[in-house]
Design goal:
Elements: E1 2-3, E2 20-22, E3 25-27, E4 39-40, E5 53-61, E6 67-76, E7 82-93, H1 98-106, E8 137-149, H2 154-202, H3 205-214
Antiparallel strand pairs: 1-4, 2-3, 5-6, 7-8
């Protein structure tokens, strides 16, 4: 249920990079940038989406321009936005015997996968259990990816709009509460003033004149 724009390139090849010694390992810094844009259309709300997978293959090139497969690997793209540093181990298929290793060293070439999806689950597999019995491999190294992931969704917009609406409602309620408190004070003052006037009118006239002269 994933799709990509027609102009999107879903495969590529990096440049050839010379390795250097870092500790006991030979390290190549490819620094190869790539951009992938994918759209997920959710039709069944009960099913969880299967996140996209990035398949990669590492090749080596010697002085005599001979290629060798050094490793295969796969990477499930992160489901959360942000910056992610992921180191993925690699492996390669091997043939038994010294002749196969000598052929690889002197002539070049090595067993390769015809279908890269065999790194995880082959695209042609239809059963329930996948058996790799008899398939011999060898651990070769690792590849580190730095991924910057962004996500866009209408649900995010709806949630932000709902938050803004709630905030505006709270602001209005706060303004109304302030206005109501002012109105309450004014009404209390008016009621107290009316009570004072009624009490003054109910007093005898001579008592009012005496109190006025004393003041």
């Amino acid at each position: 249920e994933w799709s990509s724009p027609p102009f999107q390139q879903l495969s590529g090849v990096t440049q050839t990079c010379a390795t250097k010694k870092v500790g006991w390992d030979n390290v190549a810094y490819f620094c190869y940038p790539f951009t992938v844009e994918m759209v997920y259309t959710q039709e069944d709300e009960d099913s969880l989406p299967q996140w996209p997978v990035l398949y990669f293959e590492v090749l080596s090139l010697d002085f005599w321009q001979r290629y060798r497969v050094e490793g295969y690997g796969s990477l499930v793209l992160p489901a959360s936005p942000g910056v992610h540093m992921l180191t993925i181990p690699t492996w390669r298929p091997v043939d038994l015997g010294t002749v196969a290793e000598m052929r690889r060293f002197f002539i070049g070439g090595s067993p390769e996968l015809e279908d890269l999806t065999y790194i995880r689950v082959p695209s042609t597999f239809k059963g329930k259990r996948l058996s790799r019995f008899g398939f011999r491999t060898k651990t070769t190294g690792s590849v580190t990816f730095r991924l910057y992931c962004m996500q866009q969704s209408k649900a995010f917009l709806e949630n932000s709009a709902l938050k803004q609406r709630m905030q505006s409602v709270l602001d209005r309620l706060g303004g109304f509460s302030q206005q109501s408190s002012v109105y309450n004070v004014l009404e209390a003052f008016q009621r107290a003033r009316r009570r004072m006037q009624e009490a003054r009118e109910s007093l005898p006239q001579d008592l009012i004149n005496t109190s006025a002269s004393a003041v």
